[in-house]
Amino acid sequence: MNARENTSRALDRWKVMDAKTKGKYARLLWLLIGPGVLVMLGENDAPSMLSYSASGSQYGIGVFLPFVVLTFLMAFVVQEITVRLGAVSKAGHAELIYKRFGRFWGNFAMIDLIFTNFLTLITEFVGVVAGASYFHISKFIAIPVAIVIILLAYSFRRYWSWERITMALALFNLVFIPIAVLAHPDWSAVGKSFLTFQPFPAGGLNNNNLVIFLSDIGATITPWMLFFQQGAVTDKGLSKHDIRHGQLDTLLGAILATLAAVACIIATSPLFIHHMNSASFGAAQFAQALQPYIGRTGSTLFALGIMEAGLVAATAISTSSAYAYGEVQRKNHSLNSSFKEAKSFYLTLFAIVMVAGGIVLIPHFPLEWVVLIVNVIAVLTMPPALGFLLLLVNDKEIMGEYRNKAWANTLAISIGVFICIAGILYALTAIFPNFTL
After folding, report:
1. Transmembrane segments in this chain: where (predicted)?
2. Does residue 155 sit within a domain?
3. Backbone angles phi, psi at 335, to 5 degrees
4. pLDDT by residue (tens digit) across 244-298?
């Protein structure tokens, strides 16, 4: 850790202690929130919002609303663990895996992360292209501008500044709430959907329904979230005394992200009501398809919301990858450091952003297919990540009194089993196309 990092974190810590001493609880919360809100709203990324759009347009509001709420509850259970791990160990997720399980399993976890991260990062730029196309902006303009915006977010050389700016942009995800209102939904039907939960769509869990089902799970629980939030908690300098605020931060993020996700499904439900098949238009055309039902203002906000989702998630995912790389290489990997002090960290950020953006510029790249399938892949690669997470949080040497209680282990294991079963069902429908449940 260099002098700049020490000074920056000491200054942030002094602000926290001053707020605690003076009983300024609102200011204290403001100082300590960030990683949880960012990771949850960041996971409401472009492929996630487009997956929710596909859910709303294909199934309306009666099927997936309560399921989406359930997935965010699962995400909170998982992400809360990363808060405790980061605050207690003062180490990133990749660093802990290498230390506790050795290089073989560490490399396994890194391949899992890099594979899903890179695919997901590509889809974030797909989302930027989708939103920009509504305004008739070429992808050859939209992608370079997006890359510049993302890279500018790292120019402040202060974690706190980067976090505040990125979080302000992430809060724009809530734009889907007024869009849902503009759709003039039947609010009694929305309420009824939560009271009369329909577990499976019409036709059962066939291959098509399972892709949407899994993509909605992958829209809330993915490996990059573990690495990002634990790295951010460490970079922010949270301590054991801040765990409760870190948990509150994560809960707040989960609530905000749930509201935006539910609103997105409601906003796109007119396409189902008016019997429009989403297969008849690409992901880039959701905003145009919705314009007759939510108006020009609503469709414009929808396109901007998809672009915002892609930009925020691309920033968080690239940071997650760079954190993990720096931890494994034991090189400076802090946003409190300058480019000169953490050259490999920033070069990793810049490289993966530019390569992912460049791939989307390839002519005839299958944008819509990648958007849906990447969330499915994220689900299928999540069980190993959950396994490492549970082993670490139950390690007495690392966590001491902050390790998981029995009820927390039961919840986390149940989530892992649920995701594994969903993956097995998807495999069965892929092998046996006529298989339904």
Report:
1. 25-41, 61-83, 104-122, 134-156, 168-190, 210-229, 250-273, 301-325, 345-363, 369-394, 406-432
2. yes
3. -75, -5
4. 888 999 999 999 999 999 999 999 888 876 544 444 334 457 788 888 888 899 9
Enter the pTM of the model.
Answer: 0.87
Cα dist. 335→40, 118, 181, 293 in Å?
Answer: 20, 21, 38, 44
Indicate which CATH number applies to the domain containing 406: 1.20.1740.10
Contact by Cβ (8 Å): 236, 8: no
Identify whether the C-beta of residue 312 lies closer than 8 Å to the C-beta of residue 150: no
**Token pair 């706190």: residue:** 160
Q: What is the pLDDT, as a whole number, of residue 180?
A: 93
359-390 pLDDT, tens digit per residue, is: 988 887 776 667 666 766 777 778 888 888 99
Whether residue 436 is contained in a domain is answered as no
Q: Give CA 158 to chain center in angstroms.
A: 22
In a domain, residue 8? The reply is no
Structural domains counted in the chain: 1
